[in-house]
Amino acid sequence: ETGVTQSPTHLIKTRGQQVTLRCSSQSGHNTVSWYQQALGQGPQFIFQYYREEENGRGNFPPRFSGLQFPNYSSELNVNALELDDSALYLCASSLDGDPPLHFGNGTRLTVT
Amino acid sequence: AQRVTQPEKLLSVFKGAPVELKCNYSYSGSPELFWYVQYSRQRLQLLLRHISRESIKGFTADLNKGETSFHLKKPFAQEEDSAMYYCALSGYGGSQGNLIFGKGTKLSVKP
Questions:
Q1: Which chain A residues are Cβ-neighbours of B24 within 8 angstroms?
Q2: Min Cα separation B33/chain A (Å)
Q3: Is B50 helix (H, G, I), strand (E, B) or coil?
Q4: pLDDT confidence of A2, banded at 50, 70, 90?
Q5: How far apart are CA B82 and CA B71, in angstroms?
């Protein structure tokens, strides 16, 4: 049984660029949630995908978008990057829209 | 507004001492509360949720709706309990993935 894996582990981008982060869910899990964690803060909910549909969204602008694929893996896309987007992005998986059970190690995004 | 407050940024206790990590919440409906833990160099993981009423690794947490609290307790702390602990609340919008996290409390258990 494999856990949640995220790629890349670190990323440096320039303001205005676009970025795609990837997540493979725990084996058998059909739900993926994405969180942004700024330094010294708790994770903040971005959105959740369940059976390839968005199943809830937090207070993030539309330039944050996502996808879930038939194998339940997921992508987080961020357009027009801003300096404040610098954070750790966490992906978590679960079953049937439930709260996250297993988190990935995260992708550390730095926007300069 | 829905909010989770963990008033202590850092809590330091000696091994064998009781430990209580505080969590207060603000929510207009019937919340579901969780505790997540992150050990050093490991990923964030679910410790317990109030509806399961389990004791995990000796930790328990009781939901007190009158005081809007969900404090995490353990009678005898162990060094391996040293970690970052996050209290979380679900959730508006119909999606249980809408967890609202507190800022976390770092627990340090000294020998």
A1: none
A2: 10
A3: helix
A4: low
A5: 17
CA A94-A98-A100 angle, 5° bins: 50
DSSP code for A39: T
| Pairing between β-strand A10-13 and β-strand A107-111 as defined by DSSP bridges | parallel
* Maximum CA extent, chain A: 38
Which band of pLDDT confidence, cut at 50, 70 and 90, is reported for residue B6? very high
Tokens 């893996």 sit on residue: A73
Chain A residue with CA closest to B4: the answer is: A42
Q: Is A14 buried (19+), middle (13-18) or exposed (0-12) by CB count in 10 A?
A: exposed
Residue A82 token pair? 């801003």
Write the CA distances from A104 to A34, B78, B99, integer angstroms: 10, 26, 16
Rounded to whole angstroms, the Cα distance separating B78 from A7 reads 34
Using a CB-CB cut-off of 8 Å, the residues of chain A touching B95 are: 48, 55-56, 97
Task: Dump pLDDT digits (tens) for A10-69.
Answer: 999 999 999 999 999 988 889 999 999 999 899 999 999 998 999 889 899 999 999 999
Look up residue A9 and give its amino acid: T
